[in-house]
Amino acid sequence: MTKSQPAQLQPEKINKKNILFILGRETILSLAEIKSYFILNNIKFEIEHNHENKLILSVDHDINLSDLIKLLGGTVKICDGINDTKTQKDSLAKFLNTYIPTGKIEFSINGFNALGIETKKVLKELGRSARYVEAKNTATVIFNNLIKKGADIEICHNQIFVTKAIQSIDDFSRRDFGRPGRDDESGMLPPKLAMMMLNLAIQRNNNLILDPFCGSGTIITEGILMGYKNLIGSDVSEKAVSDTIQNIKWIENIFNVDTAGLKLDIFKSDIFDINKKISDNTIDAVVAEPYLGKPLRGSETKQMIESQATELKMLYLNAFSKFKKLLKPGAVAIFIIPRFRFKEDWIRIDCEKDILKLGFINDSVLPEQKHLLYWRPGQHVGREIWRFKKI
After folding, report:
1. CATH 3.40.50.150 is right for the domain spanning 170-390
2. Is 84 buried (19+), middle (13-18) or exposed (0-12) by CB count in 10 A?
3. What number does CATH give the domain 1-167?
4. pLDDT of residue 1
5. How many Å is the maximal CA-CA distance in the chain?
């Protein structure tokens, strides 16, 4: 983890307050991630509003939102509720006049351009120099430095919120495209998704986490940045192991990682032989994206895709038979199972029942969602994220 970034938050008890989360594309997955993190940190919350990409939670703890945004892969912005402010231009102007007591007032109001222009007029009538920024996206907010020097306003559910933290686009981009060890042909797990998967595992930072399909090491490196201290990564590919080691060194240097107390074990192993390297009943969580099959181009026949799905099912069931031995009782596996796009339909790999027979239960963070989908329209492969617990 970086020296300025804690592994877990240390909230302080306060009166209830509302926090607005602006979620990423996969809103259900983002909600599950937030819920997982709050469970880990014993923060009680109530959902006040949940519509499209906006989630309002009522919490009874004071949370450092700038730290929190660094630990959530699926949240774009986090905003603090202003309890007594109404959405009229006069009320907003009075709030901004107090919120930024000196100098020029620079502000944005997401999705309410007319209100922003009218609020600027009222501020000028109050004798304040003001600049309204039409914030079309988070990049605009970052470019104009509205978090530190101004005010980025969100209006949701008839409430006013001020943005306190915003996801670092540059950091995620560097970790995705700047790392030296890459395998563009077989595809790589996005860092945001790796972070979300680690959060879904709900693990303390000293617990032992295994990724037995580590690829270029995205789950391992994100785990390091999040403050996890005991990580094991393995892969059948010598190149994958080499890439993972290379990327770990790069992360440590680029992001100023404090390696004190960090225990890493990266080695080459087929999933069928991994029990020769790791003792039984020692792993607290498996977090993994396995081999997802050959990359699809969209020209494959249905028979070809179904044949690949059958082969992958056998691989995954064999993997879970190993997980059953390696995991401690009550430990979890966060595991991606792909689904394949064929025309307008999905070809899925149905292995839930077989995994349950091996001695697991479906332990989804959102009981109404057996699995969580990560997929962008136009992609040939969708990722189903499952959470199984060993019984």
Report:
1. yes
2. exposed
3. 3.30.70.1140
4. 44
5. 75
